[in-house]
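Collaboration report, partner site 2.

Our partner group contributed sequences for two proteins of shared interest, and the home lab folded both. The records are reproduced in the order in which they were received, starting with the first partner submission.
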Amino acid sequence: QVQLVESGGGSVQPGGSLRLSCAVSGTSVQYEAVGWFRQASPGQEREGIACISGRNDNTYYREAVRGRFTISRDAAKNTAYLQMDSLKPEDTAVYYCAIHKTTESAMCIMGTTFINNWGQGTQVTVSS
């Protein structure tokens, strides 16, 4: 069974940085697309923000985070990462990772419609 464990969240001032980690077991980050999603509040939709292909290093970023966030993976550790720089208050959310056999763009754009295995998430709060 695939399990995902997110970590690395916390509180940071605007302009600061955080690196989130997603430890994966039960499958390999090397062969499936991995994505980071966030949900600002329970009443808001979860959205894909950064996804990486399982076949190559192609990435997809939602416009709101493009140029500030970087997704990567370490096959040896079977872990995916999200480096978040120049954080803004609007980045405040619970961040989740997911893994699935799909493309990076499909995962980020439509992933919430077909992904049903999520980790517990990690809270990121950006505030002065």
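Second partner submission, folded after the first:
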Amino acid sequence: QVQLVESGGGLVQPGGSLRLSCAASGFTLGYLAIGWFRQAPGKEREGLGCIRTDDGSTYYADSVKGRFTISRDNAKNTVYLQMNSLKPEDTAVYYCAVGPQSSWYGNSCLLGDGMDYWGKGTLVTVSS
């Protein structure tokens, strides 16, 4: 059974950092794409970026480029989202999703349409 479980969310002060994890089970990362997304209250889902799990290539939305970094540990079957310089507007539920390798880049990544399975999300709150 394919499952993605996000963890690492919580309350952080503005300017702080947080690392989210996306643990995959029921499959190995292999030649896939893992994407990170978020949805703030009252807003549409936003694609943050994706990673190609075979070679670690990444693609980011302009809104988070330079602040957020996606990485993976294939041995642990886990993908990470490192978030730095957090702002109150980063407050949202953060999700990871998995799809075919072709979904790692461009709109196939950011729109999330190419993703097949989704986690249930983890809440990040940025507040003083």
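Feedback sent to the partner group on the second submission included the following. Helices lie at 106-110. The CA atoms of residues 2 and 26 lie 4 Å apart.
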